[in-house]
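Can't paste images in this forum, so I'm doing it all in text. The chain is below; anyone willing to post the predicted structure tokens underneath?
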Amino acid sequence: SATMQPPIIAYAVERVYQATGDEAFKDAALPVLTGFYRWLREMRDPDNDGLIAVIQPEEAGTDCSPKYDEVLGLEELSNQGFITALRKVYAAYEPLRGDDHRILAADLFHVEDVLVNSIYVMGLRSLARLLGDAPEAAEFNREADKTRDALLAKCWDEEVGAFFDLSGVAEKPLKEVTISSLMPLVMEDLPRPIVERLVNTWVTDPKHFWTPYPLPSVPASDPKFMPGNPRGFIWRGPSWINTNWFLSHALRRHGYADLADTIVAKSQECIEKSGFREYYEPFTAVGLGARDFGWSTLILDM
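Text version of the structure:
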């Protein structure tokens, strides 16, 4: 594939290494990881501001999220409408594939995505730890600092109290609160006032993300919130175990153990009621989408 996904691979390698102590595995992985994270910096950050860009929505994994409606010029709010809009992007990309700088310069779908960049910071920190005393460790910690600072300077909206993606070369904020707006919580050095604002304003408010089975992919207060079966038009309301995994671990690291425990218990309840499904109705825990879905087995790690 010529496309990427959120760059969590270094964190995954770190967790495997922590569990096994397998030095040969780590030594084999490090050249691949350093090459990949440098590629992201060189190919996906053309303005060198520390924020990497995605070139199509599936790269972020939050395919049909309402935060992309404006960028895609979505005319019909349905999965078919999404596919139609995406095919136009693919067609325009066809002569440009393989040259990410040209694709980003074309400004068709150029999004500095908050979720992707938050996970990028996670990956960079893991890679620095895996490198230990090697001189490259400082390089990746510096890059993590740069991305964190750019998220704070460019994506944080003080008035709303949330983080927003940036669209295009002009970096226009996409002012749509979604689960992505909370994802900077995965950064351990996120300033405490911002942590508290995200938790108090959004995470724990029943009007927004604190549904009976949290955390929905879009706050319940949003006019585009779709809690039920969207027939493939995903990331517009249901709760997902993978984002709960990120955010329960993050909240625990920031000192919100009870809150994390509740998210884990509610996630487990979804699975006990409905099995390992792709996503869950945030009011009833009814399982939706694919069955026997691998992401939802993250409950074991939660």
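The radius of gyration is 19 Å. Strands lie at 111-112, 156-157, 162-163, 165-167, 172-174, 279-280, 287-288.
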